[in-house]
Design a protein that fits this description.
- The complex is a heterodimer of chains A (329) and B (265).
- Chain A has 329 residues and is mainly α.
- Chain A has a single domain, classed as Orthogonal Bundle (ABC transporter involved in vitamin B12 uptake, BtuC).
- Chain A contains 15 helices and 2 strands.
- A two-stranded antiparallel sheet of chain A has the order 1-2.
- In chain A, helix 2 packs across helix 13 and helix 3 runs parallel beside helix 5.
- Chain B is α/β, with parallel strands linked by helices.
- Chain B has 11 helices and 10 strands.
- In chain B, the strands form 2 sheets. Chain B has a 6-stranded mixed β-sheet, sandwiched between helices. In chain B, strands 2-1-4-5 form a 4-stranded antiparallel β-sheet, with helices on one face.
- The chains are: A mainly alpha (329), B alpha/beta (265).
- At the A-B interface, helix 8, helix 9 and helix 10 of A face helix 2, helix 3, helix 4, helix 5 and helix 6 of B.
Chain lengths: 329, 265
């Protein structure tokens, strides 16, 4: 508990200082993508790691958020500070809708149905030309006007801190959820549905809470993406995003808050460096996932998933009071 | 029998003519019994008598085909398991069911759900009240771990526990939910006689101090006869006998059910 909190705070603090050191635009862009993916991985982890159900449809929320931000700013002229939260809220609403259907299923059924929802949304985005501009996508998502005068580096720095802000909010919400009674209930359901129910936990309620929270965070990430890339097309629903998110969560360690951050960092950099390998890249990722599943099933940070709360092991407090052992401790 | 409760004279649990069929098989046939306040009731019977089905019917994991279940006079037939916990009825399972990858302490803390749950706002913006609740829940969970004699194993992951320790932990998790009626499904299965004796002592202590009444399914006759005030015997889904332990042990029908007709005399 303490360890995770301190690790998260330290990560955020160090990250906040990065633009002071990094002056290279390309590196800054990679760093921005790391932050963006960290939000996505954190949000997916809420479902995979804490509800224990494998969602393959998380791009539905990323895409909903991206399209929401793009449409709100191009058609209605909303400023960025309003579109990103709105993107999150709309995605959360979508999460509520999809969750109320899919969360009644478990295991492989849940996987397939979530996947099909994302696919349906992709088809809608692809074919509803009047609204989404179809395969052409929405280009020229507005950026704050003052950025036009600022230099390229300043623009990157601005987006870096924007992504940092979204990540900070995401980590705060995720942390509060995980280390609350609600998070404990979700973990109890993940570990054993029957025990959870017999002590009064309604599984659906906490699966839904985690699902909607995950959707909210993914939606905000999508909103950020729309403004940063300044273009949104149906490919935000594509499976490649899903693959990256899954690998990040698995490599880092599902069911931990620090894991997905580490996963996002590793995978984003790997993706950049393996760019020249093209098709081979995906095969290498496939091998990486197999290796993780076989040799490190709980991920790099898996050791954090258990022993989150530690109490003194010694005899009951009364006995401790009788025979206090101060020496050598 | 037991303490008189201001709520009235309704028994803590009343099972009235409950039946359950699975297809053509009648697992439980017209069972009726009561658990009054302050009582420890043993539910016994040969394997396949329908004891666990009975548990599932009471706690909402199954819905009865016929009959009703009342808790403190309120009809709770067909309530969901998580609703039963709110009514004060919490059970353990015959096949060990715990939160495997969590520590002993975390298991018990998870059992404390009903006392710690918060609204949406408080989940994300906890104030002092939430911290106070959480602190109290942790202390209580720690106390329960000690009561169950698992203090040494406080931070051990549950999958490392021995069979006997797991049984104790299960009781601890159920206990953490602060039930009025604690329902234990074979808590002594897999315990040696020494451990079973220890469990019996713990159960007797719990009644009155932590729970109002206990309903116990158990095959360890030493334990059942030792702790129960009353015993209900089931056989082939039906109630065969009911009474004080000594009475039931002398009942010829019960002896026959356990040992078979020819050797009963």
């Amino acid at each position: 508990m303490r360890f995770e909190r301190n690790a998260l705070l330290a990560t955020l603090l160090i990250t906040a200082l990065l633009p002071l050191v990094i002056r290279d635009q390309y590196l800054l862009h990679v760093a921005i993508m790391v932050l963006f993916y960290a939000v996505l991985a954190t949000s997916l982890n809420l479902i995979v790691g804490y509800v224990g159900e494998f969602s393959l449809g998380h791009t539905a929320f990323l895409g909903t958020g991206a399209y929401a931000a793009a449409l709100l700013s191009t058609k209605l002229g909303w400023p960025m500070w309003a579109t990103i939260p709105a993107a999150g809220l709309l995605a959360a609403f979508m999460g509520l809708l999809i969750g109320s259907i899919t969360l009644r299923l478990q295991g492989p059924f849940f996987v397939i149905v979530t996947l099909s929802f994302a696919e349906v949304l992709r088809l809608v985005a692809d074919n509803w030309v009047a609204f989404t501009n179809g395969p052409m996508g929405i280009a020229g998502v507005p950026q704050p006007s003052w950025l036009a005068q600022a230099g390229n580096l300043a623009t990157r720095q601005f987006y870096f801190y924007l992504a940092w802000g979204v990540l900070a909010i995401s980590l705060y919400l995720a942390y509060r959820f995980v280390y609350s009674s609600a998070g404990r209930a979700a973990v109890a359901v993940r570990e054993n549905r029957y025990v959870a129910q017999s002590v009064g936990i309604r599984p659906f309620r906490y699966a839904m809470l985690a699902f909607v929270l995950g959707a909210l965070l993914a939606g905000m990430a999508g909103g950020f993406y729309a403004h940063y890339i300044s273009f949104v097309g149906p490919e935000v629903f594509r499976f490649a995003f899903m693959v990256s998110m899954i690998i990040m969560v698995l490599i880092g360690g599902k069911g931990t808050l620090v894991g997905p951050l580490l996963g996002a960092l590793l995978v984003t950099f790997l993706e950049e460096y393996l760019r020249e390998a093209k098709e081979l890249r995906l095969s290498l990722f496939g091998l990486a996932v197999m290796g993780i599943v076989l040799f490190l099933p709980r991920g790099l940070m898996g050791f954090l998933a258990t022993r989150r709360e530690v109490r003194p092991t010694a005899a009951p407090p009364v006995a401790v009071a009788i025979a206090p052992r101060r020496q050598g401790v | 029998m037991g303490t008189v409760h201001p709520l009235g004279n309704a028994p803590l649990l009343e099972v009235r003519g409950v039946s359950k069929s699975f297809g053509g098989i009648k697992a439980v046939k017209d069972i009726s019994f009561q658990v009054r306040e302050g009582e420890i009731v043993g539910l016994i019977g040969p394997n396949g008598a329908g004891k666990t089905t009975c548990f599932n019917l009471i706690t909402g994991f199954y819905t009865p085909t016929a009959g009703q279940v009342f808790v403190k006079g309120e009809n709770v037939t067909g309530a969901k398991p998580y609703q039963m916990a709110k009514k004060g009825v919490v059970r353990s399972f015959q096949k060990t069911n715990i939160l495997k990858s969590l520590s002993v302490f975390e298991n018990v803390l998870a059992g404390r759900y009903l006392q710690t749950r918060q609204g949406l706002w408080r989940t994300f913006f906890p104030g002092r009240a939430v911290r106070e609740t959480e602190r109290a829940a942790r202390e209580e969970a720690e106390r329960i771990v000690h009561i169950m004699g698992l203090g040494e194993r406080m931070n051990a992951p549950a999958y490392l526990l021995s069979c006997g320790e797991l049984r104790l932990l299960e009781v601890g998790v159920a206990l953490a939910a602060k039930p009025d009626l604690l329902m234990l499904d074979e808590p002594a299965a897999g315990l040696n006689s020494q451990e079973a004796l220890g469990l019996g002592r713990i159960l007797k202590q719990l009644r009155g101090s932590h729970v109002t009444s206990i309903l116990l399914v158990e095959h360890n006759m030493g334990l059942v006869m030792n702790v129960s005030d009353r015993v209900v015997v089931m056989h082939f889904g039906e109630k065969l006998a009911e009474g004080a332990p000594a009475e039931v042990q002398r009942n010829p029908a019960v002896v026959e059910a356990y040992l078979g007709g020819g050797r009963a005399a």
